[in-house]
Design goal:
Elements: E1 5-8, H1 12-26, E2 46-52, E3 55-64, E4 69-77, H2 86-100, E5 105-111, H3 115-120, E6 124-132, E7 135-143, H4 149-153
Amino acid sequence: MSNLEIRAIANPKEREEMYHQRWLVLRAPLGMERGTEKDTHDEKAFHLIAILTDKIVGSARLVELSKELGSISYVAVLPDFQKQGIGTKLMEKLIEKAREKNLQRLRLKSRITAVNFYQKLGFSPAGEPFDYLGIPHVFMYLDIPAFRQQDADL
């Protein structure tokens, strides 16, 4: 998948295409209307998209909740492109961005069916499962080690 590009959204057209892709993956299967794939954090969030042959096939976002805590959400890859490493690449870029912002911890709300995916990236579940949009979810956290100059020198 050498022609896969992972980057921030560049313009309003891409933002709308990202919202459509997000809705197709996360809300349409639940019978939810367009617009439910957005929330009040979108304007201040850092959005990533995965582009393959000029088509947005994946997306995810990072929101700073405080100086120390970031929230990852709306991680979505079109079904035909899942299990090809695209979600992992999106997550790795968001973790890298969080590290650049000196965040100390990341939080996400995972569908129970996706817990193993996030655990492979270092996230740990916390608390009891809960219902969100009619689907069992659990909060998961990742502690981000502080950047140390000696690590860069290795």
